[in-house]
Design a protein that fits this description.
mainly alpha
């Protein structure tokens, strides 16, 4: 934790959460994999746990994020 704070300016948990969120966004935005399967791939026991985690860090649901990603991909 001390090393993470010195190197990244974040706690070890924050580093792990940031990486997990990045991977969730990648999978939601660039694949058609069902959200329930993404949750399991990322180590969540239940899809609702991914939804809570995702909303806590982004203020939107995984479904909303996926829909926005599709919208931006179609309009660019």
């Amino acid at each position: 934790n001390t090393i993470c704070k010195k190197v990244k300016g974040m706690t070890a948990k924050q580093v792990v959460d940031a990486r997990l969120l990045l991977e969730a966004k990648r999978l939601l935005g660039y694949t058609s994999t069902p959200i329930s399967e993404i949750a399991l791939m990322l180590g969540f026991n239940e899809p609702t746990n991914l939804a809570k985690f995702f909303r806590r860090h982004t203020d939107i649901s995984p479904t909303e994020f996926r829909n926005m990603s599709k919208f931006f991909a179609e309009n660019n």
